[in-house]
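Instructor's aside before we start: the two examples that follow are unrelated to each other. I chose them only because their records fit on one page, so don't look for a connection. First example below.
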Amino acid sequence: MEITGIHATPGYSGFFFDDQRAIKQGAEHDGFTYEGEPVTDGFDEIRQAGETIIVDIELADGTVVRGDCAAVQYSGAGGRDPLFQAEEYAPVIEGPVADELEGRDATEFLDNAELLEEMTVEGDRLHTAIRYGVSQALLAAAAEAENTTRTDVMADALGTEPATEPVPVFGQSGDDRYNNTEKMFVKGVPVLPHALINSVEKIGENGEVLLEYVDWLVERSQELGPEGYEPRFHIDVYGMIGEIFGAPYDREEVVDYFADLEEAAAPYPIQIEGPMDVGNRADQIDAMVELREGLAEAGVAVDIVADEWCNTFEDVQAFVDAEAADLVQVKTPDLGGIHRSGQAVRYCEGTETRAYLGGTCNETETSARACAHVALATDAAQVLAKPGMGFDEGYMIVENEMRRTIARREREQQQVDTDEVTADD
């Protein structure tokens, strides 16, 4: 079925763009916003409204499918593409992108997505957010044209066997790390709570505040969780362990702190995302390898998650090849085309590194649902609940999309089995 039209409508995403550098340099909260001047190019304020471009693809039979362009909350930081501004980029989608894709066969998802991935305009590749959103619409178009699920289209493109159970969902609490986490316990969320530990105040000058929080996680999970509940704790510290301890990361003081985290989390596993941020990919990999070797030598079972400087497909490869992390976050908007996220998850197969299909609170319900299909197609280790920082909505969107898709695939397989039996008779 032919692609007959592509339209771009600026809109809002599920959270905000934040100037991470300004925040790390000490910008103080002013209610929901921040005081001070932005320092990252493109920002007018330290916190400003998140934006999206709603991408509609029309097919020859009149069907319209959708994808949403999105960029991460901390745009322009850590080697990412610049701040994504919808009014600037919408004409690119309705112009050069539409010119390339209109008239193409919608069932050729991988070819179409790769064409988009390699496309340049005035010598520059398309912004990652454009590639991300348009490729979601291409995935939906292929599923519609083939009367199948987006999971099956993605699995066919990647050569995988889809998961038959929902991938464990990782809930993120935002700054409301107590109330939102209690909601997660009540719902039995398998991986939690993120906790947004992005300042010395939140971790403690010697890490003591985070240890107290982990103690609380264990206590409340046992009080509120369903019978048999065994959560995995995942906490993003935004490099703050590096801020309070510093290198080298295999020394006794640092390793002992991770041992304290392991003890506080017992009997549940714990993983720490972004333990340090040293300013570039090569040094970040070296620092994380140093930390992992120190933990392994001491027998400390805390998993380390790559985040900072692990943005592109090539970044994921570098972290996995160096064995710099127990998990790598595949930050879906940063990889561009959504198939690239699937390929990044697959790159972890057969290695000691697990794939966390992540992204950002600053996405939309459309991009979150699309990522649920990538998670199922690749059977990722975990998938982020998104968008937003309220938890409930993002969890509902991602979990229900996986459950609905699995149920549909089971019904369709049952029908195939029934038809085969009838034919044999």
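Example two begins here.
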Amino acid sequence: MSLPPLSPEQLVKPRYFELRMSLIFATLFVSLGTHLPYFPLWLQAQGFHAEQIAIILAAPMFLRVVTTPLLTALADRAKDRADVYIALVAATMVLSAGYFLKPTYAMVLAVSLALTVVWTPHSPIADSLALSGVRRFGSNYTAMRKWGSISYLCANAAGGFILYWTSVQAVPVIIFVSLAAALVAGLLAPRLGRPRRASPLSATDIQHSAPGLLNPYFLYFTLGVGIITASHAFLYGFVSIYWKSIGISGSVIGLLWAWGVVAEVCMFLFFNRIFASVSVVKVMLIAGIGSIVRWIAFPLIWPLGLGVIGFFGVQTLHSVSVAMVLIGLQKMIGETVSEERTGAAQGIAYFFNGFFMAAVTLASGPLYERYGVDGFLAMIPIAIIGLALIGLAARSAPQHPVRR
């Protein structure tokens, strides 16, 4: 598939391209690193019960699997993706102020639904800009993207200390301020024009290339990845609430979340040294087993008297249950999907991950309401289903890597 030619302007590298993209990634992930661990705590502080929290968390997930590919396709067709990015960040900042209004259930749900439409595309559009720099100018993607991981880690830890010294009511303020910082950084986004290849989640790319991906190996594998990932829904939705209920302070909760990210980054750094010769199916089986061990361990830590140290230990499994899933998926796509279909493959995997995560998040509210931390045990059969699908994928795996 031939790519459209670059215009003379697109051949000129913007000044300080890597620095500007690093700043965008750094500011982009602060709000995300605050929202995931602490937003459920804020919802609980407003008096919402577990089932309402689950709906507020899950409903946007269902919506964004539809809207995000449409908006990334819009960005692909726009005169410049940076303008779309700035507009979306500005809209996100304005809408996030809705959390300052009287927090009725209907209001918070409506704001969350509106927010997810304009918030979720930030990352894939930023990735698209960075990858254009990689293709056109030889920029180092990892060197730029690492600042997103660093800022996410810092947001996890710093957010906990801020809440410890203030209160959980500071969560909307932190999100609003961090989005304002992202908007300032977005104004510095390099102008690169239209991409030569569709963004990873582009609806156009999925529509054109998806039929060629409908083979048993790809479908079983991506379904398995989506379901193993979805077994983390109970963790993301309710572990901060659980930790607070047993008297763990906000600062320690922040450190526990941050430790999981540290473990994930370590796996990214050392994966090739440890698992370079391991097949992608075995990588995913290890990740699924790590998930099961994690969900067995969580309800036992506090009753067995292992305390906070035990939770740090189980959070270390984030390196297996999350990082190895992410790496394994990309490894599978790289080995079996031709280059012109990689964007569609990413989009289909995103849809499966998003849909199953939303479904399990929705179920997690009643589980926590009735069983508390023992709701983690319900994540075990979900992870087992994911493992079974990976096993079916192994039986239909291609004998040779894809021809480039």
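Residues 208-396 form a domain with the Growth Hormone; Chain: A; fold (CATH 1.20.1250.20).
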